[in-house]
Amino acid sequence: LLPITIISAFEVPYPQSSAEIRSSIVASDASFATTTTPQNNNNNNEYQPITRQIQLGSGTIAEVITCIPPKKTASPDMLENIFSSLFGNDNTSSSSSSKNNKPTLAFLHGSFHASWCWAEKYMPYFASLGYPCVAFSLQGTGGTPVMEMGVTKVKIASHVADLNAFLKGLSDDDTATLGLGLGDDPKIVLVGHSFGGLTIMKWLEQAYNGDNNNDDDDNNTNNSIDVNLAGVGLMCSVPPSGNGAMTMRFIRRSLRDAWKITAGFVMKKAITDKAICRDLFFGGTEDDNGISDEDVERYQSYFQRDTVATIDLGDLAKKLPSALADEETGRAPFVDRLPPVFVVGATEDFIVDREGVDETARYMGLEKPLIVDSPHDVMLGRRWNNGANAIVEFIATL
Questions:
Q1: Cβ neighbours of 385 (radius 10 Å)
Q2: Sequence-distant (≥ 6) Cβ neighbours of residue 236 within 8 angstroms
């Protein structure tokens, strides 16, 4: 196995090009690593995300963001429990309840985004509730260069291999640990957005279905269920059948909207056209969702940085999760072996329609999804708490 090395740390968000990032932060020795805090909208310095580049067990040097609640000093009750156990008192039941057993939240972004999208609102918020938060950026984004220089398309198997290495590395006991101090067997709730949701579906397929549908030997993850997965959440996820069927539905409904989606992603107009960017990700007009023109410009600079390489759609079309779905029910063959799952859609999602959200819910074995009041980017803007509340309510059921 490859040695795990922290390469460096830097502020997030940071509107730099991938070339500037690599030239400024990549160091040859972990002793050069520093930790800095981002300038975001959260005023509590106790819960500021930290961004590093860390080599995953898959070999990828990935941008990793963490927001870990500070460890609290021992309370009088905890000290009393320690003395009780030392001197033979049987009244030690409260010691277990004082232990923080909250799961670690692991977030995965979608296209045009990177792990920064979780760091602005969600990670500080959940950390303030006591949940350790982690996220990593997929290959092709500014902070996570592709393994092969010059490549502009990344296969889904590469993303799945990196996700697998990232999740396994969250354990301090793993030989390829990322060294984040989360414990030997941390409980993990995995949350994906947009194309990140589809990447999670492919990882679940390999982890829980014996990797029966993976014919890409170059990125075989050799998965076994050695990740303590407590739950899975898919938010505004690309459905198991991909974008093809959705695109046809959009064409039938509105040629104008279908053009916006095509121009925004294929022609990358979302990076240069404010109106298209708003429609696709943030909804409404200027400042309608708490996203100012200055915010849009800032996000567009991130989108430009994080589209150095994009998902290989031709490769993905041959390996869509829907290939395994039951023809009658639409369910994945492994849903009975999964931990609890939730699927969230958004009322103003311009990219993933309601039929797509329903398809994802069926694939994951649910009768219906939860729909929240939000545009596609549920983690940003004024209504970010609607999606966050859905996660909190789900965790409460675990």
A1: 15
A2: 110, 193, 194, 197, 344, 345, 346, 349, 351, 352, 357, 376, 378
What is the pLDDT confidence band of residue 373, given thresholds at 50, 70 and 90? very high
Contact 106, 115 (CB under 8 A): no
Residue 348, SS3?
A: strand
pLDDT bin (cut points 50, 70, 90) of residue 285 is: confident
Residue 44: which pLDDT band, with cuts at 50, 70 and 90? low
**Separation of alpha carbons 192 and 275, rounded Å:** 26
CB distance 359 to 251 below 8 Å: no
The structure tokens listed for 243 are 């974008």
DSSP letter string over 175-230?
A: TT-------SS--EEEEEETHHHHHHHHHHHHHHSTTTT---GGG-----S-S-EE
Q: What is the mean pLDDT of residues 293-320?
A: 96
Picking from 34, 380, 38, 352, the residue whose alpha carbon sits closest to that of residue 195 is: 352
Dump pLDDT digits (tens) for 101-130: 899 999 999 999 999 999 999 999 999 999
> Distances from the Cα of 267 to the Cαs of 49, 111, 141, 264, 368, in angstroms?
32, 14, 17, 6, 34
Q: Among 268, 269, 271, 266, which Cα is nearest to 300's?
A: 271
| Cis-peptide, bond into residue 13, ω within 30° of zero | yes
Q: What DSSP character marks residue 34?
A: -
Collapsed DSSP state (helix, strand, coil) of residue 41? coil
- Look up the pTM and report it: 0.85
d(CA 321, CA 214): 11
Separation of alpha carbons 266 and 238, rounded Å: 16
pLDDT mean across residues, the chain: 84
Distance CA 57, CA 161 (A): 9
80 pLDDT exceeds 60? no
**pLDDT per residue over 229-249, tens digit each?**
999 999 999 999 999 999 899
In whole angstroms, give the CA distance from residue 324 to residue 333: 7
Nearest Cα neighbor of 51 from 14, 17, 104, 2 is: 14
Strands 153-154, 310-311: parallel, antiparallel or unpaired by DSSP? Answer: parallel
What torsion do the CA atoms of 288, 290, 291, 292 make, to the nearest 10 degrees? 80
